[in-house]
Amino acid sequence: EDKVVQSPLSLVVHEGDTVTLNCSYEVTNFRSLLWYKQEKKAPTFLFMLTSSGIEKKSGRLSSILDKKELFSILNITATQTGDSAIYLCAVRNTGNQFYFGTGTSLTVIP
Amino acid sequence: DTGVSQDPRHKITKRGQNVTFRCDPISEHNRLYWYRQTLGQGPEFLTYFQNEAQLEKSRLLSDRFSAERPKGSFSTLEIQRTEQGDSAMYLCANSPLAGPSTGELFFGEGSRLTVL
After folding, report:
1. Within an 8 Å CB–CB cutoff, is residue A69 touching chain B?
2. CB contact under 8 A, A43 and B103
């Protein structure tokens, strides 16, 4: 059975801290891995990763994929209260099906 | 605003009633997905269209759920004889077949269903 597992399920940090969110997967016919941020509305796209070892960066957020060990991490440095959200990991297979993890709920305290 | 429009945004209904949700996708996005999301969970796949063809349907989807995309544009998701366990956020997402955003899902704001 295809599955995506995220950890931790929730995280509470102080502003300025650095956090690392984890996503491991078992999906046949892997095509890409995506990260989304969800506040109290629809998920918004952060990154799409297809190749191992190539870091994607956007401001304070970065992500990397390891296709051999079947996982990805999302790093957020110098966290701000606006980073508080649920972070979703999804894996797309070659059949264009997307499998989502349960998400990591991040709370950043001022 | 991703350009994906869902209607209604909120629906409260009594158990046993039928409900229908509509999704108007980004016009050039051929792929359309329906997901269900409950509190503390990630989106759960329901069904997927490429143009007007329904290519896949979740095995978890009961016969009370049906989706259509008659002209390959907007889509509807109908739930018949609603049950309290159907209470959830129903998300529509689109993806283009080609271009720089291929492989990315664009989500609508969702339709929140509460079954009393």
Report:
1. no
2. no
Verify whether the Cβ–Cβ distance A31 to B45 is below 8 Å.
no
With beta carbons less than 8 A apart as the criterion, state whether B2 and B107 touch. yes
- What gap in Å lies between CA A85 and CA B68, rounded to an integer? 32
pLDDT in tens, B35-87: 999 988 899 999 999 989 998 888 877 899 999 998 888 999 999 999 999 99
Is-contact B78 B67, C-beta < 8 A?
Answer: yes
Residue A13: which pLDDT band, with cuts at 50, 70 and 90? very high
Quote the DSSP letter at residue A78: S
Contact (CB<8Å) B44/A88: no
Chain position carrying tokens 């990154």: A47
Note whether A15 and A81 are within 8 A (CB): yes
- From chain B, pick out residues whose CB is under 8 angstroms from the CB of A95: 56
Within 8 A of B35 by CB-CB distance, chain A residues are: 100
Q: Sign of dihedral through CA atoms B3, B8, B12, B16?
A: negative
Handedness of CA A10, A13, A16, A22 (dihedral sign): negative
Amino acid at A1: E
A92 vs B108: CB contact, 8 Å cut-off?
A: no
pLDDT at res. B103:
78
Instruction: Give tens-digit pLDDT for A77-86.
Output: 999 999 999 9
Helix (H) or strand (E) run with residue B32 in it = strand B31-37
Number of Cβ within a 10 Å radius of residue B97? 12
